[in-house]
Amino acid sequence: MSRQCELTGTRRQIGHLVSHSNIKTKRTFEPNLVNVTLASEALGQNYRFRISAAALRTVDHRGGLDGFLLKARDAELSAKAARIRRALKKKLDAQAS
After folding, report:
1. Can you name the CATH fold of 13-96?
2. Which one of 24, 67, 83, 95 is most buried, counting C-beta atoms within 10 A?
3. What is the number of other CB atoms lying within 10 angstroms of the CB of residue 54?
4. What global pTM score does this model have?
5. Are the CB atoms for 3 and 12 separated by under 8 Å?
6. Each residue of 56-93: b (16+ CB within 10 Å) or e?
7. What are the residue ranges spanned by the domains of the chain?
8. What's the confidence (pLDDT) of residue 76?
């Protein structure tokens, strides 16, 4: 299992640990990943994701999983999230027509 957010695509970053004497050594900055269950109101199902804490705040800000997926770009979503997004768009298009 990779250290990557399934909704935003956030991965680990590489940087330097800088000592007082300015000696630089490599280190990694890992994303704060949490296991959550998010509900899709339009589809009427719950989905389990491993997302970053920042992405969880963004999901809440955008009005839930449905709002987040409709505004997200295809390139940053995982295969699972993209599949849910396609099903969501299909359901909303069926309701509109």
Report:
1. Ribosomal Protein L24e; Chain: T; (2.30.170)
2. 67
3. 13
4. 0.84
5. yes
6. bebbeeeeebbebbeebeeeebbeebbebbeebeeeee
7. 13-96
8. 87
Question: Which position has the token pair 């009005």?
Answer: 63
Terminal CA-CA length for the chain: 40
DSSP state of 74: G
What element of type H or E holds 70?
helix 65-71
Long-range CB contacts (within 8 A, 24+) of 42-49: 42/66, 42/88, 42/91, 42/92, 43/84, 43/87, 43/88, 43/91, 47/80, 47/84, 49/6, 49/7, 49/80, 49/81
Per-residue DSSP letter, 75? G
Structure tokens at 45: 């199902």
